[in-house]
Amino acid sequence: xxxxxxxxxxxxxxxNSKKEITPKTFEAIMNIQDMGHIVVLASGRPYxxxxxxxxxxxxxKKGGYAIAFNGGMIVDCKTGKPVIEKCIPNxxxxxxxxxxxxxxxxxxxxxxxxxxxxxKMDNYMQYEARLNFMPxxxxxxxxxxxxxxxxKCLMTAEPNVKAPRCEMELKKMFAPGLNVFRSEPYFIExxxxxxxxxxxxxxxxxxxxIPREKSICCxxxxxxxxxxxxxxxxxxxxxxxxxxxxxxxYITGSCEEDGLVEVIEKFIL
Length: 269
What we know:
Layout: E1 5-8, H1 23-34, E2 38-42, H2 51-56, H3 59-62, E3 65-68, E4 73-76, E5 81-85, H4 93-102, E6 106-111, E7 114-117, H5 123-131, E8 136-138, H6 142-145, E9 153-156, H7 162-174, E10 178-184, E11 187-192, H8 197-208, E12 215-219, H9 225-230, E13 233-236, H10 242-246, E14 250-251, H11 259-267
Parallel strand pairs: 1-2, 1-12, 2-3, 7-8, 12-13, 13-14
Antiparallel strand pairs: 3-4, 4-5, 6-7, 6-9, 9-11, 10-11
């Protein structure tokens, strides 16, 4: 069999606006896994926030992989253990936290199955916790509590003025050591330098001994552009941001229209 690897963003790609995998998409993905093809989920979410989809698609039984934190971690779904992990150097935790306090914005990170904050809770971090089905916990001494290396931290700010300003300031303050970008108008994501879906995917392909030409990457958001560009076949959903479409080899139907079924039939079956 000509084994291929299908790499999927979650929100706006695998799931529709109701955060559900449609029956036709589910059936098509299960079918190609049964044939021996590999399915990978790639998301900015932490791994616990991806597990519901991993388990729904039985990737823990069929040998799939999850790329979490926008490329900061690759998890073998069978074992639930990271095979690659890229952490923020510990020296950055205190200045990042002080910046959040000084600018009165939110900051969270992730430990086990919890979202952790030491700043005032806001609606944006509560949404992040709900989205990932993880409890949000505020700790008294954030710096003392975070005695581990963070894979990602997330800052939250009002989207119109404050978030763009803070994003630019953080980029200037922490370049080139840290990667700073907005995944949503109100979310500022921070990882160690070089973390990106497009840099992590080649590492996974090498690990699995699968050539780039056998990879198909599907996405819709700004953080999917590099992933779509690095694939053997890069696919943009019809609901994707225009910049994703501009860099894709193929544009399929939307996440509401079973666009992934079209991709599977055309490029895998």
